[in-house]
Amino acid sequence: MAKKKAKKKKTVRVNRDDAIALFRELGFKTATDWDDEKLAKNLNRLEDLPAKMKTKQTERAARLVMSVPKGGVKIAGMEERQEEKDAKNKKEQEAFDKERAQSTEKRKAKVGAGKKSKTGEEDMAKKKAKKKAKKAAKKAAKKKAATKAKANGNGKDKFGTRVGTKGAKFNAALTAKPQTMAVLMKKAGLKETMYNHANKLIENKLVRKSDDGYALAG
After folding, report:
1. Which of 30, 59, 123, 151 is the most interior residue, by most CB within 10 Å?
2. Contact of 214 with 207, CB cutoff 8 Å
3. This prediction's pTM
4. Exposed (0-12), middle (13-18) or buried (19+): which is 165, by Cβ within 10 Å?
5. Is 116 part of any domain?
6. Is residue 132 part of a domain?
7. DSSP type of residue 68
């Protein structure tokens, strides 16, 4: 025996403005604030309506409501409006998530920058301490050399130049290999040329001069 096809439930769609006008005529003054879902729900709850409505608009709405069984009334365009609402909510949620993600990234970047800055400060402090220690060691070595030279030759180097003077520094930079005046000045940490001093050393046959520069006589 063939099964009977289930009857499709009859439905009608009532214009939103008509539905609101109907409820306001029935005494529901807040109907204007109801959403589509509440309007449809209350329309489907209506039992009896006045035989004659006051306006054509409410008459039209009442006729539609009474033409179908309970549960068969819907608000026209409610699905489309719900879709628009859902799409808007989704867009707002995505914008919020994006903003929150950017805020999190900025916060992480700020924390990273703080750590980097702290590391940079520590490195700078280490460099300063290293430079200070190097300067102190150099000063101590210079003092020791001066003391030794003073003990050995009344404060003069092997060339007879007083220790600590520019001439002594120039002498200390000399080697057996010829060097230009510029190179010797740089090694000695001098800013002025020492040609007169170098000529005296040449006259005393302590230094020799060639095209390549100045070198210890030997």
Report:
1. 59
2. yes
3. 0.35
4. middle
5. yes
6. no
7. S
CA dist 129 → 52, 126, 203 (Å): 100, 5, 45
d(CA 41, CA 61) in angstroms, rounded, equals 14
Q: Say how far residue 22 (Cα) sits from the centre of its chain.
A: 58
**For residue 56, what are the domain limits?**
12-76
| Structure token digits, residue 27 | 């005494």
Q: Could you tell me which residues come within 8 angstroms of residue 161 by beta carbon, excluding any fewer than 6 positions away? A: 167, 168, 171
Q: How far apart are CA 77 and CA 39, in angstroms?
A: 13
DSSP assignment, residue 61?
Answer: H
102: its two tokens: 């950017």
How far apart, in Å, are the Cα atoms of 26 and each of 19, 36, 45? 11, 18, 13
Four-residue CA torsion sign, 200, 203, 206, 211: positive
117 lies in some domain = yes
- For residues 116 and 70, state if they share a domain: no
pLDDT, tens digit only, all 218 positions of the chain:
555 565 667 888 998 999 999 899 989 999 999 998 999 898 888 877 877 888 888 888 888 888 878 878 888 887 888 788 888 888 889 889 888 888 888 888 888 776 766 777 888 888 888 888 888 888 877 777 666 655 555 688 888 899 889 999 999 999 999 999 999 999 999 999 999 999 999 999 999 999 999 999 87
Q: Which of 44, 53, 50 is nearest to 78 (CA)?
A: 44
Q: Which two tokens stand for residue 211?
A: 């095209």
Is 165 inside a domain boundary? yes
How many structural domains comprise the chain? 3
